[in-house]
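tool=predict chain=A
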Amino acid sequence: IWYFFILLYMPVLLLAALGVSFVINGRLPVLANLAEWTSLPILFAQVIFVGGPLMDELGWRGFFQPALEKQLGKLYAGLLTAFTASLWLIPFFAVNHLPVVEGTLLTFGIHMLCAFVYERSRGSLLPTVLLQGVVRATLLFFPFLPGAVESRLPLQAAAALVLAAALAVTLMVNQDRLPRFAPLQRSAQPHPLAAD
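tool=predict ok
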């Protein structure tokens, strides 16, 4: 079931972002790469082995997150790993003239989902590497990045949807780990400024 989630969830979510962009903007980005859909497996393999997910996940989920889990627990280790990975990529976005805010938020959401998949797969790196590969291949294949489209709206919609999905999954799965706050209790005494 994890492989179904990994291989289909993110592409569907990112394609939904193109739909949101179309509804808001009234224009669908040019889908020039669709004619070359048979090259998608090659792009996916290239992204996995050359584009970074294999090395990224060895560092983030293979070392960093497990080290944090010993001190912070799974929830906060996953959140801190996502936050750190997002900050780590800001120079990459800036140097490559990519939208920094959208890229950072999208990265945070993706890494939160990776933390979820890593935990649910009992610490296996393969599902997180595949998830990162699917995300990166989808972002490259469809028109999200500047240069492929004239508007930042598809990337903004992708960042918003991925972040919302990551937050929803994190909240649903970690309900028992979230801090609980006692409800406010009203005082039996009237407020000193209250009218008599």
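Helices lie at 2-25, 40-49, 53-72, 74-88, 90-95, 100-120, 126-141, 153-173. DSSP finds eight helices and no strands in the chain.
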